[in-house]
Amino acid sequence: MKNIFAPVILVLILILAACGDSAVNVSHSEHSPSPSILATPAQMVTAPADKANVGEVDNSTRAIAIHPEGRLLVKPVSKANAASLGAPSCYGLESDLRWTGDYEVIWEPASGEAPVKVIKFPPDFEIIQQNDSPSTMQHFNFEKVDIFAYVPRYTDCHGLETYLFGISDQKVFPISFEINAGEIWTTISQLPHHALQAVNEELIVAGGYGAGQDFINIYHFRYDPKRNIMVNNHTDQVKPKDMDKILKTEPDK
Length: 253
Fold this sequence. Notes:
It is a single chain. The chain has helices at residues 2-31, 41-45, 243-246; strands at residues 56-57, 63-67, 70-84, 97-109, 116-120, 126-129, 135-136, 138-142, 145-150, 160-168, 171-180, 183-185, 188-190, 197-199, 202-206, 216-224, 229-238. The protein is α+β, with helices and mostly antiparallel strands. The protein has two domains: 2-45; 51-246, no CATH class.
C-alpha cells in the first residue's frame, strides 16, 4: 500500500508548493508597485500651485496720513507685489494680503511742489493687511508737532514694528526712540492689539512680548522737539494678565 500511494503523495506535495509560491507573488505585486509607478519628489514639488499665492504687481499706495500742509504716503519706489497670505498664522489669516517690494515714505506738499522722500524702508520690508485699502496712520500732537505712527503689519507673533513721522513748519522727518541715554532705536515694537496712547503729553507704548518673558515693558515717552526724538522717561513692567487694566485693547478691524 505504501508503495502504491507514495508517488501520488509526492505529486500532491509538489502541487501545493507551487500554489504557495504563486500566492506569495500575487501578494507582492498588489502591495509593492514598481518604482516607475511611484511619484518622484520632483513630480510632487512641481504640482500646480495655488494662484492666489503667486502674487501680482501692485504699485498702489499702502498707507496715508492727511495733514493741512500735505499728505504722507507709503508707496513703492518702483515695483511691488501683492499676494494672499496663503495660510493662517500669528501673522494673519489665510485671506489677508501681503505686499513686498521696494517701499518708501514720501511727502506730497499741498502747495503742489515736488514730492519729498522721507525714508526708504529696508529690503526685507513687508506689509500685511486685512484688505487692499490703504491703512490710515494713527495721529498724535506733541509740542506743536503733528506725529503719525505707521504700522506695516496689523498683527504679529510678538510685536508690531512701528515707525513715527513728524510734521512741523512745513518740514517732515522720521522720529526715533531713545530708550536709555545713548540707546536709540529707529523703530519700536509694540504689543499687538494694544494701541499707542497719548496721556498727559506722554506717548505710552506697550513693548512686544515673547516666550520666556515674565513682564511686558510699558514705555513712557516725551517728545524732544530740539532733537526730533521720543525720550523714554521711565519704563513700567507689567504682567501679561494685567495688560488690559493698563492699556486699552485695540478694537478688531
